[in-house]
Amino acid sequence: MEDPWRYRLRGEFHVLRRGGAVSLGFYRKHTYQTLPIDACLIHVDAIERALPAFAHAAEVPGAARVTALQFTWAPGTSDLLWAPYPPRSADSGFGARAAARVPELNLNDDSIGLDDAGRHFRVRPETFVQVNARQRAVLYERAVLFADLDAKARVVDAYAGIGMLTARIADRAMHVIAVEESPYSVRLGQINMQLNGIGNVTYRRARVEDSAAQIEQPVDVLVLDPPRAGCAGAAVDAMAKLAPERIVYISCDPSTLARDVNRFCATGRYTLVEVALVDMFPQTYHIEAVVKLQRTG
Fold this sequence. Notes:
2 domains, CATH 2.40.50.1070, six-stranded mixed beta sheet
């Protein structure tokens, strides 16, 4: 990554109250003690500029229940999505108080639009989004390359989220079944497919481990992008029974990736044939990986 700074378009900041003043910051390592910050060089400038405004907005008694704030910025715009934690803990005037101090930003508390590969996607606070837009393209291009799709391919995209990677897959496949558990992500995923004129994607709201019995075979390619905890053991077994020719697994945790790849390769069902690493989180020890598994025999 040429410029490994100011890449995080989403961040969560904890609220610290001291003597009537409010600061925003991060937990100290291995504690729940909030360390107030003035700057964070891995977050985009729009988020950093918004921090004092939201700290001020949290000073009134009506905002006393707010313990954390999440921000998501839409690259190339002035749109900043904000959300309090716990949900709905902010008073009705919270956003207006913050907006008065950052008039150059367009604050939203419902959803914003993010662009990817010439398409437009709606995003909400509850939905997952890759935090590094510049490296997201690198990651998704590698995943599509590993999938090795053709116009007749039937693909299962498990943990599909709001559909950014799903849309790229759909470009090169006959049909994509997008499996996602979150109702927010399923609804936004369906809306995003409609917004982008994509008609060969079917969303199914279900846990991955519960969805296999409802998926028609054959399945040519399985794409997995689970949360950091990886796949449940039952999910690996269920997806392996679909017997896809190839599996493309995206992971942000090498330990759970290794565990799940070992599960897929157990008893000789699949072979690990290719691995790519993407530096999604510069200045940290975290890494994103994409692996390709090929069915044996």
